[in-house]
Amino acid sequence: MKDYDGTEYDNVESVDGFAAVPDAFQRLWTPHRIAYIESGQQPAKDSCPFCVAPTLSDEQALIVARGEHAFVLLNLFPYNSGHLLVCPYRHVSTYDEATDAEVAEIASLTQKAMRVLTATSGANGFNIGMNQGQLAGAGIADHLHQHVVPRWAHDSNFFPIIAGTKALPRLLGDVRAEVAAAWPA
């Protein structure tokens, strides 16, 4: 398959030759996501990824910063490159269960994340939020986490509901290293 500039891509499949009725969509295959799909979105409590992450090295867990009550890590399934999550260490599911100290540190780490992402990636804006509960869209509903999603002018890559495709130009490990190195001490 060729892009508009003539670049060849092996992981994009043309609709030509599909057995079904042809449509206008191109398919970008992302087989790495099958592990997430097959395992289900809600991990067992004893295998909560946000409880396990702090027990690993920062590189293994994609952690960019650790505080006293909360930590910051890259989202494994980002909406945009640099998509960070701010999580309390304590396993609580909703914001109203967090202590005042946890809430304050989540807010402070979110502000630092915005500053670091602006400095490292030139972000022009941010989507920040928490999905509380599975019905509200929380992928990991059992452990509180706040999303910090950098945005750029004309990125047109946030929640690609219509196209069903996300293009992420940077590897998670590379982004983690850059953000961690720029995080204020």
UniProtKB/TrEMBL annotation:
Membrane spanning stretches: none
Catalytic residue list: 145 (tele-amp-histidine intermediate)
Record flagged with keyword Iron-sulfur: no
Binding residues annotated for substrate, in chain numbering: 75, 147
Molecular function terms from GO: hydrolase activity; nucleotide binding
Organism placement in taxonomy: Bacteria, Bacillati, Actinomycetota, Actinomycetes, Micrococcales
SUPFAM superfamilies: HIT-like
Positions occupied by motif Histidine triad motif: 143-147
Keywords recorded for this protein, A-Z: Hydrolase, Nucleotide-binding
Top-level taxonomic group: Bacteria
Protein name as annotated: Hydrolase
The HIT domain, residue ranges: 49-158
Native source species: Conyzicola nivalis
Keyword Transferase appears in the UniProt entry: no
